[in-house]
Design brief:
Elements lengths: L1 H19 L6 H15 L4 H23 L10 H4 L1 H22 L3 H12 L3 H11 L3 H28 L4 H11 L3 H15 L11 H40 L10 H11 L2 H14 L8 H20 L4 H4 L4 H24 L4
Helix pairs in contact: 1-2, 1-3, 1-14, 2-14, 3-7, 3-13, 3-14, 5-6, 5-16, 6-7, 6-8, 6-16, 7-8, 7-11, 8-9, 8-10, 8-16, 9-10, 9-11, 9-16, 10-11, 11-12, 11-13
């Protein structure tokens, strides 16, 4: 078992290093693909397999908890606050598109949730967080991550040139990149390219570049993960409670739906406590409990833990399944991302001042 965990940790170190060499593909995504590659060369067995499974679940929960310490509701001020209505609308839009079109494509509900949440919030971190809450299967998580990854690369590479071609102001590009590119590293990469394309013209009236503004909007958007996590936690608890009550009515469980005490016990049993700690960590960071000097280390630690977990997830995925069963989730990811792009562009040209 320790060998399986150790291999996932080693993969995480390698993925983190490779992710640091460029800004387009983040370490967590690289970790997932390395895990998949190793597993398809030599499938895990016995205690080694148990170790990768442990890493996939436990390191993920721990990574999510630490991620909470990187979030702060203070981000929702200034320029970020001005984009908040669009961010909230895009979250609802992405989930709506994912559920409607995903249903037509025959994509599982969990995958639809992950694609919608990942596209609208912050890609891999949102998918990892929601996957733990709704107890999605490893393959559902991998399909969603792959879908998000493909269109994130397209956005990171193409948006700077699209923004230049459309003569977007720094403020307009900041909103577009901050709301329609998922991974923070990809937002930074696109923002840097845009600033270089504009040169001296990249400075906004506020004294910030289009790249700076894009990161501010992205951080505001990432903070909404806390809200989405709370919503899906209660949805999941309610779903489990109803399921257990139904079992009790059928005589297959001792739970009595008329007993408030029994219902309370059900809630305590199914509540994902790591999410509560995640929320507490975010609140503590908001009020300044964690010194600013520790922020870089905490961010690196949270990403490393998630990367280790995704390496473990990769050991569960077969390439053949990814290129057969994963096609529909990828199509869904494209439709959802396109919906967000149209929404953000509409806001930029019809509502937002240039």
């Amino acid at each position: 078992m320790l060998l399986g965990i150790g291999v996932c940790v080693i993969i995480a170190f390698l993925a983190t290093y490779l992710g640091g060499l460029q800004r387009i593909i983040g370490g967590p995504m690289i970790g997932l693909f390395i895990g998949m590659l190793v597993a398809n060369i030599k499938p895990p067995e016995g205690d080694f397999k148990n170790g990768t499974t442990f890493a996939a679940k436990k390191f993920l929960n721990l990574g999510i908890i630490v991620t909470g310490a990187t979030l702060s509701f203070k981000e929702i001020v200034g320029f970020g606050a001005s984009a908040l209505p669009l961010i909230i609308f895009n979250i609802a839009l992405a989930l709506g598109i994912a559920y409607l079109i995903g249903g037509k494509l025959g994509v599982s509900k969990n995958t639809r949730t992950l694609v919608g949440g990942g596209t609208s919030i912050c890609g891999g971190t949102a998918i990892a967080t929601l996957a733990s809450i709704i107890e999605a299967k490893e393959e559902e998580m991998a399909y969603a991550l792959t879908a998000i990854f493909l269109f994130d690369i397209i956005a990171a590479l193409g948006f700077p040139y699209l923004g230049r071609a459309l003569a977007l102001s720094p403020e307009q590009f900041g909103v577009l990149a901050g709301t329609a590119i998922n991974d923070t590293s990809s937002v930074v990469a696109a923002a840097d390219t845009f600033d270089k394309l504009l040169g001296d013209l990249s400075m906004s009236t506020s004294g910030l570049t289009g790249g700076n503004l894009a990161v501010i909007v992205k951080l505001t958007r990432t903070t909404m993960l806390v809200v989405l996590a709370i919503i899906f936690t209660f949805v999941t608890i309610n779903k489990k409670r109803k399921s257990l009550v139904a079992q009790g009515n059928n005589g297959s469980s001792s739970i009595n739906h008329e007993s408030n005490e029994s219902v309370g016990k059900v809630v305590l049993r199914v509540f994902p406590w790591f999410i509560l700690i995640f929320i507490i960590m975010a609140l503590l960071n908001t009020i300044g409990v964690f010194p600013e000097s520790t922020a870089p280390f905490i961010k690196k630690l949270s990403k490393f833990l998630v990367t280790t977990a995704l390496a473990g997830v990769g050991f569960k995925i077969n390439f053949k399944d990814l290129f057969t069963k994963g096609i529909k989730p990828i199509m869904l990811g494209g439709c959802t991302w396109l919906g967000l792009c149209i929404s953000s562009m509409t806001y930029i040209f019809l509502i937002m001042p240039k």
